[in-house]
Design goal:
The chain has helices at residues 2-24, 50-64, 84-90, 184-199, 221-226, 247-251; strands at 29-35, 68-76, 95-98, 109-117, 121-132, 153-163, 166-178, 208-213, 231-233, 236-238, 245-246, 277-281, 286-292, 308-313. It is of the alpha+beta class. The longest helix has 23 residues, at 2-24.
Length: 314
């Protein structure tokens, strides 16, 4: 009888543990960052124009079955043939998206969009924004640095996780951005402003994902500052208020072939540049895997940057 009670109690405890473990278990979070190369430019080679590569590019997005997709250089345009945001959205029926043009008119210009899997994530309507990397971050289209090539912005959202339509109690912030391509100082200012915003987020215990074309190599002041290193700007040393982890390096610490800008070169041609596209996460998130996606079709790349992805866990 005592043996029966012991076995029964043991089975009950094991069952309780397994049930609770299942309750708190979570699927990994799949993330993609992709500079889509805006549709308004006439490329040197006809087959590199948006109309010829849009299907191949969005196939890469679809195949990854991503929770979050941060896109850069994504055009919002009245002309349907050039409206990249609308086209990508049309091919992702299971995803919602948030993002506006970085210009004054929210419906015309480049956008930094965040697409998210609707079945799993719900936007917190009280904690979403677009802000500009300028001295007046809440003024649309604003640009402060005279050396900067153009206006730059950040899309920022708080998401709540769902399981079978019900909140799991877990939440995550996602930021998507594109730093300036001309001015090193503008990139450093952008990094400082982004990290200040992250540090000041409403729910400071909630972890963060940052996707973006940072236009800076891994040893640059801007990238190192985002990873917690101090940075000298305007003759003053600034200590980073928050520390992020580069998922690619977390998964591939010794990788050497890391260039992410291909410029529509032919596969196999030397690229001679550094990694400038990133997925960063809070230190409390675990990186399971991360890669640079070098997919091409018929010898042509679907965009002038290699997309980067990461699989992370709570």
């Amino acid at each position: 009888m005592k043996l029966f009670r012991f076995v029964a109690v043991s089975l009950f405890v094991f069952s309780l543990f397994f049930t609770n473990a299942s309750l708190f278990a979570s699927d990994p979070i799949r993330v993609l960052s992709i500079n889509v190369r805006q549709s308004m430019v006439k490329e040197r080679e006809e087959l590199d124009n948006w109309i010829h590569r849009k299907e191949a590019m969005t196939d890469i997005i679809i195949e990854g079955d991503y929770d979050f997709i941060g896109t850069q250089e994504t055009m919002i345009q009245p002309d349907p043939a050039r409206n990249q945001v609308a086209y990508i959205d049309s091919r992702l029926p299971g995803h919602g998206f948030f993002g506006r043009s970085r210009e004054v008119d929210p419906e015309v210009g480049e956008a930094m969009t965040i697409h998210y899997k609707k079945e799993r994530w719900r936007i917190d309507e009280t904690d979403k924004e677009t802000f500009w990397l300028s001295d007046t971050p809440d003024i649309p289209g604003s640009k402060t640095d005279p050396k900067a090539g153009c206006t730059r912005s950040v899309t920022a959202l708080l998401f709540h996780e769902l399981k079978d339509g019900q909140p799991t109690g877990r939440s995550i912030y996602v930021y998507n951005t594109h730093f300036d391509h001309l001015s090193e100082e503008a990139r450093q200012r952008g990094a400082k402003q982004l990290m200040d915003r992250i540090a000041a987020r409403k729910k400071k215990d909630v972890p963060v994902i940052v996707t973006g074309d940072i236009n800076s190599g891994e040893r640059s002041p801007a990238v190192r500052y985002m990873q917690g290193a101090p940075m000298t700007l305007d003759g003053q040393v600034w200590n980073s208020p928050y520390k992020l982890v580069d998922t690619f390096r977390a998964a591939n610490p010794d990788a050497v072939d890391v260039a992410t800008f291909n410029g529509f070169k032919k596969p196999g041609e030397p690229l001679n540049n550094s990694k400038i596209d990133y997925i960063f996460v809070s230190p409390g998130l675990k990186t399971i895997s991360a890669e640079i996606i070098r997919t091409h079709r018929n010898g042509r790349y679907p965009t002038d940057h290699f997309p980067v992805n990461a699989v992370i866990a709570w």
